[in-house]
Amino acid sequence: MLKRLYEWVLKLGERKGGTYALSSVSFIEASIFPIPPDPLLIALCLGKPSKSLYFGVICSIFSVLGAIAGYFIGWGIWELVDTFFFNHVITTEAFEYVNRKYAENAFLAILGAAFTPIPFKVFTVTAGVFKINLFIFVIACAIGRSARFMLLSVLILIFGQKIKVFIDKYFNALAILFFIMLVLGFFILKKL
Known about the structure:
Elements: H1 2-12, H2 16-29, H3 38-47, H4 52-76, H5 78-88, H6 92-115, H7 120-129, H8 134-169, H9 171-191
Helix pairs in contact: 1-3, 2-4, 3-4, 3-8, 4-7, 4-8, 6-7, 6-8
């Protein structure tokens, strides 16, 4: 089933709908959605390697816009959504840990979260809750998210067909690895 989904997503890269799907997933992942846009970005780039940089830019822009939406969720309606976040996304200990990281160096904390597989929405929403300077927040998000997504895009642009052959050959193992990394990211965040 995952293999069919992967092949379907590859075909999205050849149609206009792929860009809309990528921009939507990138936006909502940065504020509320638990699945990162990387698999869709990779699939779209593999489906149309010549548009890899374009897909990377779209993913970066909409991820930063989604991060800003997450910031305003934390800044404006935290009292309405805090129970959901504490029940499903973050522990109170992790919440306080993020607050300490912001106190040490908000820019580096956000930059690190933007680039790594740690669930980004936790940092976007808490940045609003803790009233992190919006300018610093946006700059750190823009640098971290662009570096992450453009790195993937450039690698696929350079190694396109070789990477596609590798993914096709080891798809099941890579899907399991991706799932483990996703779960591990949430686990680490919960245990912080």
